[in-house]
Amino acid sequence: TIGITYLLAYLVISFLIVINMYIAVILENYSQATEDVQEGLTDDDYDMYYEIWQQFDLDGTQYVRYDQLSDFLDVLEPPLQIHKPNRYKIISMDIPICRGDMMFCVDILDALTKDFFARKGNPIEETAELGEVQQRPDEVGYEPVSSTLWRQREEYIFL
Length: 159
Known about the structure:
InterPro entries: EF-hand-dom_pair, EF_hand_dom, Na_channel_asu, VGCC_Ca_Na. One of its GO terms (molecular function) is voltage-gated sodium channel activity. By secondary structure, the protein is mainly α. Helix content is 62%, strand content 8%.
């Protein structure tokens, strides 16, 4: 009877150890998969963007002045944040500037998203389909007249 008890105890304990190892491997794979998903932009990142945007666009016009852009990008939290000095980064992002030196919130978010994926090694390429989606003819007052890159070129020429 002692042998049978020992054998049963051995089988139960070894079975529990093997099951726990399988559970540990499954949980590790699950946590690794969720980490991989978290490397992209999440809803929290977009919520953070719009919360900080509200601090700069107090009237809710969806526009901020061009001279506020550097401060806005510095105040954002990672992964969208671009620390100061960020002048040359802003220029290279080629963000549209509308009449009155105003910048549209979705244009800035598009540029930040493209920059994020480019830093991760997955640049977003411009395609005809993407261009059709990005058109904003229905926005009231949305009339791009320049961009950050063209503004720098104009300033350089006039110096």
